[in-house]
């Protein structure tokens, strides 16, 4: 059996589990082809970015399970997971992936709504008179 590498990626409220094996470059997300699961071109581009930096688009297979959040958050979580799996596969890839900005987890989340305001920061309109 070929060796398998595992990593977890997160973004907003999404969480992705990535299993990396050597292969022909297939990416399966939740049982579907990556391009079918992520119909938007930007999301397809985002999940392939770490593979392009590492020059491994056609040399490894990825099996991904992603849950929570929306399309954008899920794509970011998959990218983060792929990056971590590549680092587990080959530690020398850490420097170029770090330089590209894929290793650091994007900690931004939706800010909670506060009491007395309409949204997180939006208050009702002020009336002088």
Cα Rg: 18 Å
- Low-confidence blocks of residues: none
Say how many strands there are. Answer: 5
**Overall shape:** elongated
Helix/strand/pairing category:
alpha+beta
Ends apart, CA distance between termini: 77 Å
Main β sheet profile: 5 strands, mixed
Commentary on this structure:
By secondary structure, this protein is of the alpha+beta class. It is built from 4 helices and 5 strands; from the N terminus they run ββββααβαα. It has a 5-stranded mixed sheet. Strand 3 (27-29) and strand 4 (32-33) form a beta hairpin. Helix 2 runs parallel beside helix 3 (71-89). The termini are far apart.
Quick overview of this protein structure:
The chain is of the alpha+beta class. The protein has helices at residues 34-37, 41-54, 71-89, 94-100; strands spanning 5-11, 14-22, 27-29, 32-33, 60-67.
What labels would you give this structure?
129 residues, alpha+beta, 5-stranded mixed β-sheet
Layout of secondary structure:
Layout: E1 5-11, E2 14-22, E3 27-29, E4 32-33, H1 34-37, H2 41-54, E5 60-67, H3 71-89, H4 94-100
Parallel strand pairs: 3-5
Antiparallel strand pairs: 1-2, 2-5, 3-4
Helix pairs in contact: 2-3
């Amino acid at each position: 059996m070929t060796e398998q590498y595992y990593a977890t990626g997160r973004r907003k409220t999404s969480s992705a589990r990535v299993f990396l094996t050597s292969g022909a470059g297939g990416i399966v997300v939740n049982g579907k082809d990556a391009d079918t699961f992520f119909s938007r071109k930007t999301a397809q581009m985002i999940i392939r970015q770490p593979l392009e930096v590492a020059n491994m688009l056609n040399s490894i297979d990825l099996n991904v399970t992603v849950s929570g959040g929306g399309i954008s958050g899920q794509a970011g979580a998959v990218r983060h997971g792929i990056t971590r799996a590549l680092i587990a596969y080959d530690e020398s890839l850490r420097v170029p992936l770090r330089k590209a900005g894929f290793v650091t987890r994007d900690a931004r989340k939706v800010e909670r709504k506060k009491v007395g305001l309409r949204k997180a920061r939006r208050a009702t309109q002020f009336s002088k008179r």
